[in-house]
Write a structure and sequence with these properties.
Elements lengths: L4 H14 L2 H14 L5 H13 L3 H10 L5 H13 L3 H13 L6 H10 L8 H15 L5 H13 L3 H9 L7 H13 L3 H14 L4 H13 L3 H13 L8 E6 L2 E6 L8 H17 L15 H9 L2 H12 L6 E5 L5 H13 L4 E5 L2 E6 L2 E2 L6
Parallel strand pairs: 3-4
Antiparallel strand pairs: 1-2, 1-3, 4-5, 5-6
Helix pairs in contact: 1-2, 1-3, 2-3, 3-4, 3-5, 4-5, 5-6, 5-7, 7-9, 8-9, 9-10, 9-11, 10-11, 11-12, 12-13, 13-14, 15-17, 15-18
Length: 379
């Protein structure tokens, strides 16, 4: 059976989401043989797939060989640069679009505004001008998604008060996502005064969202108010709410190997846990200090460390080390943002094992090499 352009586009999408690079390459070969690679939709999905599989070179090559481009092609190129946290390169693509007199759409502006969050230097003034020019110059009315991006940029560079003022002066009722963007910056910059105000807005807007309860519980826990935190979690349990569990996975021998925290369902569970215990000891010798502040439960210090040691990212990294040859990089995918302790741990793993570790989480790519991360510890 010959897969048509619709099927190919779908398979590229799945391969990219899973980070299944080998499968994506095989289907790319199939598209070339069947002549569907010149289809615009197939080309656009190919760009996205290669970027998501940490293959920037082939993603850019796929863009360059396309016989024609549309705005989705250009947006895909910008989005890929943002996955790699390369804001300056994304702005270069934006300049190419402007020089070619290409008309941007609403997605383009969400991406370009976001690019100013990951530039090498503070370009907030340029970002403000762009945001204000959306309606006057390009005829595009800013939506909640644009405000999320703009607030994230202001918050990233420390303009928390201005970000709060921007939200309060929005021409329509701000969604919870806009407030969450500011709350994330408050967490990063340790601004509890604004953070408390923001959390109240989110709570009043999303009383049925499980993540809202987790958010409030975490805020109480972080400030040592364990009793209040447990009351929120108990309320959450009584209402039957469950938070979205953290999950990490690795592709090995064309199979997906998935892990949850303290997961013991894998057939090689004993080898993985034994290997992780050795890895923890080596990292502790190399200077790794478990950050128990990421365990938001009122338990003793040793129990907190046990919670930390068996997070899904650590299990996936250990499995990757056990199943790949020395010198090969480890590639991990994660469905949510990696926690700070796992991030620190993987930096130490890259030192003690002399291996490169690539991790894609909800914030983009992390590349751990010789104790450093490409995100510069800001994600």
């Amino acid at each position: 059976m010959v897969a048509d352009e619709v099927a190919l586009t779908s398979i590229f999408g799945v391969s990219g989401t899973l980070g299944f690079h080998e499968m994506g390459k095989q289907i790319h070969c199939h598209a070339l043989k069947t002549g569907f690679s010149s289809d615009l939709g197939v080309g656009n999905s190919l760009i996205s797939m290669y970027f998501k599989c940490y293959n920037m070179n082939d993603a850019i090559k796929a863009f360059n060989v396309m016989p024609s481009h549309d705005i989705v092609s250009w947006n895909g190129l910008i989005a890929g640069q943002l996955l790699f946290r390369q804001g300056d390169e994304a702005l270069t693509v934006w300049s190419r679009m402007e020089n070619a007199s290409l008309k941007p759409d609403t997605v383009t502006f969400v991406l370009i505004i976001s690019a100013y969050r990951v530039t090498n230097s503070n370009l907030v003034d340029r970002c403000r001008k762009l945001f204000l020019s959306m309606k006057t110059v390009y005829g595009i009315e800013p939506t909640s998604e644009h405000y999320v991006s703009f607030v994230s940029v202001l918050g990233h560079w420390g303009f928390l008060q201005e970000a709060e003022e921007v939200i309060n002066n929005m021409p329509f009722e701000p969604k919870a996502s806009v407030w969450r963007a500011l709350l994330d910056s408050c967490r990063t910059h340790l601004n509890t005064s604004i953070g408390k105000r923001v959390s109240k807005h989110i709570l009043s807007m999303e009383p049925q969202d499980p993540s809202t309860y987790v958010l409030v519980s975490n805020l109480y826990s972080a400030s040592g108010r364990w009793h209040n935190s447990e009351k929120v979690r108990e309320d959450m349990r009584q209402k039957g709410f469950r938070k979205h569990p953290s999950r990490s996975w690795i592709i090995h021998q064309n199979k997906l190997h998935s892990f949850y925290a303290r997961d013991k369902s894998h057939p090689q569970e004993k080898d993985i846990y034994s290997g992780l215990e050795i890895l923890i000891l080596e990292c502790l010798k190399a200077g790794y200090v478990p950050d128990t502040s990421f365990v938001l439960h009122e338990v003793d210090e040793q129990q907190k460390k046990n919670f930390l040691f068996y997070h899904s990212a650590k299990l996936a990294a250990t499995y990757g080390l056990l199943t790949t040859r020395h010198g090969q990089p480890i590639r991990i995918m994660k469905n949510i943002v990696v926690c700070g302790d796992c991030h620190t741990f993987l930096k130490h793993v890259s030192v003690v094992t002399k291996r490169e570790i690539f991790l894609r989480d909800a914030s983009g790519f992390h590349c751990f090499v010789n104790g450093q991360c490409s995100c510069k510890d800001y994600w």
